[in-house]
């Protein structure tokens, strides 16, 4: 769908295109001299897409408005939004755009692994209070008010500092978010899952998730996922549940129903088409599974207003348009 000259492409329309395909596993790489990854990018961008990865992600929106997808929820974003996304949670931010418009330096992203954090915490017990924050990140958390402002400032400082000073700002932003008052943080999605298990459990979850996402609209067999993890079915099943908290079958159902919720909310596709699109060839079975998960039929879910649909607490975006300058703006001496 190509926009006409001067036409605004609404994020809901963009979302509909993305939601018809599985989330992409993003491979996170950082330089050998870095223990975490910090970057800024434009929108549209090749890396700005519906994706998931085993790293934690802190995400700052500098410019523009639009819609986010976090886990099984779609909601609004504006300048100054700071979000924490847990391992394995699918996410994307889609801006309102004029035809051929580019939002330069829209995003600041910080990504780090659970192994990195645990390694730090094992020698620095002062980091222990951050664990509760990270454990809750499977819901996706959006921060607002002064917490978001202070976190945004620290995220920007990471990009313009080096060495020990740089890593001090990483710890500062984590501390800021861990200390956020209840009225300045909102849990976005229904309880999701994490991939912070160790060893064989982590391997099972990552292989299983990759296989599920690649085949959400097709027939899914645990035997195929186990083969990809180089495990027998009983071993794979045991490690998958231990590390993710869900059986493989329950995870498939959760992801399929979450995808169905997005399609019902963001497209006008017939319910039968939605059923097929999320891997249910039998419409009656789809209706039954949807009702078991959400306590209502797909048709009723679609009729409800966005604020009436079952979901996590909707974020209250008390966002400011003032922000810190980007790295490029600092280098160029541009005042914002």
From TrEMBL:
Q: Name one GO molecular function term.
A: sequence-specific DNA binding
HTH araC/xylS-type domain ranges (all copies): 206-304
Known InterPro entries for this protein?
A: AraC-bd, AraC_XylS_family_regulators, Homeodomain-like_sf, HTH-like, HTH_AraC, RmlC-like_jellyroll
User: Which UniProt keyword terms apply here?
Assistant: DNA-binding, Transcription, Transcription regulation
Coiled-coil regions listed in the entry: none
- Give the residue range of the signal peptide: none
Tell me which SUPFAM superfamilies the record gives. Answer: Homeodomain-like (SSF46689), Regulatory protein AraC (SSF51215)
What's the protein called, per UniProt?
AraC family transcriptional regulator
């Amino acid at each position: 769908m190509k926009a006409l000259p001067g036409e605004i492409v609404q994020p809901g329309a963009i979302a509909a295109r993305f939601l018809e395909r599985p989330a992409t596993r993003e491979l996170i790489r950082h330089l050998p001299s870095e223990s975490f990854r910090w970057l800024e990018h434009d929108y549209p961008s090749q890396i700005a897409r519906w994706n998931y990865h085993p790293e934690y992600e802190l995400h700052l929106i500098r410019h523009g408005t639009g819609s986010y997808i976090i886990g099984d929820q779609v909601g609004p974003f504006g300048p100054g939004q700071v979000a924490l996304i847990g391992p394995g949670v699918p996410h994307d931010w889609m801006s309102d755009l004029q035809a051929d418009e580019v939002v330069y330096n829209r995003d600041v992203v910080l990504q780090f692994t659970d192994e990195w954090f645990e390694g730090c915490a094992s020698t620095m017990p002062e980091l222990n209070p951050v664990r509760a924050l990270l454990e809750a990140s499977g819901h996706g958390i959006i921060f607002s008010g002064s917490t978001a402002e202070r976190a945004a400032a620290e995220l920007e400082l990471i990009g313009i500092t080096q060495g020990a000073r740089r890593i001090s700002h990483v710890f500062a932003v984590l501390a800021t978010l861990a200390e956020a008052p209840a009225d300045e943080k909102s849990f976005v999605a229904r309880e999701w899952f994490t991939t912070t298990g160790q060893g064989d459990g982590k391997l099972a979850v990552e292989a299983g998730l990759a296989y599920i996402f690649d085949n959400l609209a097709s027939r899914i067999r645990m035997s195929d996922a186990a083969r990809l993890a180089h495990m027998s079915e009983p071993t794979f099943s045991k490690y998958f549940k231990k590390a993710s908290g869900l059986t493989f079958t329950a995870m498939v159902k959760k992801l399929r129903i979450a995808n169905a919720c997005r399609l019902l909310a963001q497209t006008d596709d017939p319910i039968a088409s939605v059923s097929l699109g999320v891997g249910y060839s039998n419409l009656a079975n789809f209706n039954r599974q949807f009702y078991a998960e959400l306590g209502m039929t797909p048709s009723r879910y679609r009729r409800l207003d966005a604020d009436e649909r079952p979901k996590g607490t909707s974020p209250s975006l008390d966002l400011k348009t003032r922000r810190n300058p980007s790295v490029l703006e600092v280098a160029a001496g541009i005042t914002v």
